[in-house]
Write a structure and sequence with these properties.
single chain
């Protein structure tokens, strides 16, 4: 039986007595290196599995169970396991190995969660919404501006498990950055949690700066000379995309504040100072998003007002031209009644006189409307 069969058997156990039972089952057959997803019995869901001691990467064991067992024997390191969109079956063995709460496991697998922070015994479960800016040549009524994903983080005394959902938000560069700073990484799993929170919030800052450029462009178009002809659909599209960003940013304020202020067993007090910095950056982004929403409302109202003014101007022009046309219509209507006894009907200059009167009357009306701004 392969290692995959072992983990499936582990996943089917109703109750697991801990790491020893899982390790005993795994030792019966050949181990598989989980750090290489192509050979992982859990499939491509496993992105990486690395053990750290004193802030430095240590040679991994033959598989996940062996790595965790070695870390727990030394009691001075931790394991960082990265997953990408695992299924229930793929995650079941890991949940038993690290004794993860079923509710947190369900949230991590199903995704579509609000940013939050929950504690299950000695394990901390955090949910972050990731965002990225979708590049586009021109903003239209159907342009996608903000794309969202999720990162779930399990933090225990000797492990960090990250579960990523979405096509963006890779933690590979973040892992390399942390490994280049052993002093920070030596502070334990909480340092990884802070790095992830800081990475997510930094992405928020970058996205809000890009959205600001789109809003500035829409604002310039609306207040241009032909602003009334601007597409209102672009404004509504920006508001919808901004709502996605708002759903990611605003609910995260409370979890980050808790990490920065409340005593939590798996978060070292020294790390909490770093979370306060993250909280400050998040506050700036939250204020920006709120101001964007108000600004887009003002731009939309200004655009609607411009449309109303343009419609009123069109109605005035139509009314003015209708008044000019009414003069020849009235005169021609009178002389078209075919009565025998009509003024100047048989006079030689009667026709030129009527045409002249019509022309003069129309010119007087045209000049009057033109002077008043109706034409």
């Amino acid at each position: 039986m392969s290692m995959a069969g072992n983990l499936r058997k582990v996943a089917g156990l109703d109750k697991v007595s801990g790491l020893r039972k899982v390790a005993r089952l795994a030792r019966r057959h050949t181990r598989v290196d989980l750090s290489h997803h192509a050979r992982s019995p859990l499939g491509t869901a496993v992105v990486n599995c690395v053990a750290y001691q004193d802030g430095a990467r240590v040679p991994g064991g033959r598989d996940l169970v062996d790595t965790v067992e070695r870390v727990r024997k030394k009691s001075d390191g931790f394991v960082w396991l990265g997953l990408h969109e695992p299924t229930d079956r793929e995650f079941a063995g890991i949940a038993d190995l690290f004794d993860l709460h079923p509710l947190a496991v369900e949230d991590a697998v199903e995704a579509h969660q609000r940013p939050k922070l929950e504690r299950y015994g000695e394990t901390l479960f955090a949910v972050f919404k990731t965002v990225c800016y979708v590049e586009h040549k021109e903003l239209t009524a159907t342009s996608e501006v903000v794309n969202t994903g999720e990162i779930m983080v399990f933090v225990g005394p000797d492990f960090v498990i990250t579960v990523r959902h979405g096509r963006h938000g890779s933690l590979g560069p973040l892992r390399e950055e942390l490994e280049s700073d052993p002093q920070q990484l030596s502070k334990g799993p909480a340092a990884v949690l802070h790095a992830i929170a800081d990475h997510v919030v930094d992405d928020y800052v970058n996205v809000t700066d890009s959205v600001q450029a789109d809003i500035d462009q829409v604002e310039a178009d609306v207040f241009a000379e032909n602003g009334a002809r601007a597409d209102a659909g672009r404004i509504y599209q920006l508001k919808r995309e901004l709502l996605e960003l708002k759903r990611a940013v605003v609910p995260l304020a409370r979890p980050v504040q808790e990490l920065a202020t409340r005593p939590i067993r798996v978060v070292d007090p020294e790390i909490q100072a770093y979370f306060r910095d993250v909280s400050d950056h998040l506050l700036r982004v939250t204020e920006q998003v709120a101001s964007f929403d108000e600004l887009l409302n003002s731009i939309l109202q200004a655009h609607l007002a411009q449309v109303t003014v343009a419609q009123n101007e069109d109605m005035r022009k139509i009314t003015a031209w209708a008044a000019v046309i009414a003069v020849p219509t009235m005169v021609c209507g009178v002389y078209g009644m075919n009565f025998d006894n009509m003024p100047e009907l048989h006079w030689r200059f009667g026709y030129p006189l009527v045409i002249g009167v019509i022309t003069v009357a129309c010119l007087v009306l045209y000049r009057g409307f033109r002077r008043n701004g109706w034409l």
